[in-house]
Amino acid sequence: MIGNQRNTKLRILYAIVIVFMLIWTLYPLLWIAFASVKPKNAQFLPVWFGFRPTLENYRTFFQNSEFVRCFINSMIVTILSVLLSLIIGTPTAYALARFKLRRKSGIMIFILLARMTPPVVLVLPFFLMAKKMNLSDTYLALVAMGSFLSVPFVIWMMRGFFDEIPVEIEESAVVDGCSRFNAVCKVILPLAAPGFAATAVLCALLVWNEFFFALVLSGNRTRTLPVLVNMFVSEKSVDWGTMSAAGIITVLPLIIFGLLAQKHLVRGLTMGSIK
Predict the structure, then answer these.
(1) How far apart are CA 241 and CA 61, in angstroms?
(2) Is residue 272 pLDDT above 70, yes or no?
(3) Whose CA, among 101, 208, 262, 274, lies 20 to 30 Å from 256?
(4) What is the DSSP-derived secondary structure letter of residue 238?
(5) Hey, how many other C-beta atoms are within 10 angstroms of the C-beta on 73?
(6) Residue 175's CB: how many other CB atoms inside 10 A?
């Protein structure tokens, strides 16, 4: 009886903590969603209800001639950056997981430094290199930026997934006549598919939402959605309604992508948690 009461109290406590975390996490997004359907005269009213919803803010955003171009730019930069990051980071992660290298931990820390360094420190070298090589306002500069930000994350994530795959499986494939390359391609990579899905989703989030680097490296031809949202802030005023609508539209593609990859994402994030 006492044990049941204790379990009930623990479940209630867990439920309270989960509800609190959900409110803490979703409140800003809910505020933006409500602001996107508020008329201009109700933007600063501290109320959730009591106003007439309108789609005028969405209509204003969709009428912006830059929307379609910026959306396509964001898709191109995100897809290419994620693919390039996986191509570069996966072999590195496999080598760090399987081969006996000297000072392996030091190499991992060195790789992590690229993510630990504040972006404001790195944006100037990126800008100067892009300017020197005539790559400003090009997809190449933005893809290089996205890959630079994502590769360390790919290496750290995929190395953990490769570590959890027993090396005996790979050795069995080699004994059966496969070369190491074929064993990796036909055995190891399919087993690490959930890890690829989780890593791809998280890298896509990282690249899609990048604002600071995209603001500096992009131009009229390659402007991305986060940069377009910032255009609704002027010296004289801020169009909160249209900017909120733009924010909701900006996050929708990644929400849809995450829902489609949810099965593999959950499996990839929990891979190796139970041995």
Answers:
(1) 10
(2) no
(3) 274
(4) B
(5) 22
(6) 9
Tell me what the pLDDT averaged over the chain comes to.
82
Convert the pLDDT of each residue in 209-260 to its tens digit.
888 888 888 888 888 988 888 877 766 777 788 888 888 888 888 888 777 7
Kindly give, in sequence order, each residue whose CB lies less than 8 Å from that of residue 114, ignoring residues fewer than 6 positions away.
148, 149, 151, 152
DSSP class of 219? -
Q: Which residues lie closer than 8 Å to 255 by C-beta, 6 or more apart?
A: none
Query: What pLDDT was estimated at residue 226?
Result: 87
Helix (H, G, I), strand (E, B) or coil at 233: strand
- Spatial distance between the Cα atoms of 84 and 95, rounded to a whole number of angstroms: 18
- Tell me how far apart the alpha carbons of residues 209 and 197 are, in angstroms, rounded to a whole number: 18
pLDDT tens, position by position, 116-152 = 878 778 888 888 888 888 888 889 999 999 998 899 8
Residues 178, 171: Cα–Cα separation, whole Å: 9
pLDDT at residue 83 in the model: 94
C-alpha closest to that of 145 among 221, 75, 206 = 206
Count of helix runs (H) and strand runs (E) in the chain:
14, 0
- On whether the CB atoms of residues 135 and 141 are closer than 8 A, the answer is yes
Q: Give pLDDT tens digits for 3-42.
A: 567 778 788 888 899 888 888 888 888 888 888 888 877 7
Rounded to an integer, what distance in angstroms lies between the CA atom of residue 244 and that of residue 58? 9
Q: Which backbone phi and psi does 221 adopt, to 5 degrees?
A: -85, -30
Please name every residue paired with 190 in a beta bridge, in sequence order, or none if there are none: none
Rounded to whole angstroms, the Cα distance separating 158 from 171 reads 20
Distance separating alpha carbons of residues 263 and 194, to the nearest angstrom: 9
Detail the DSSP E strand segments found in 53-115. none
Q: What does the block give as tokens for 165?
A: 């795959």
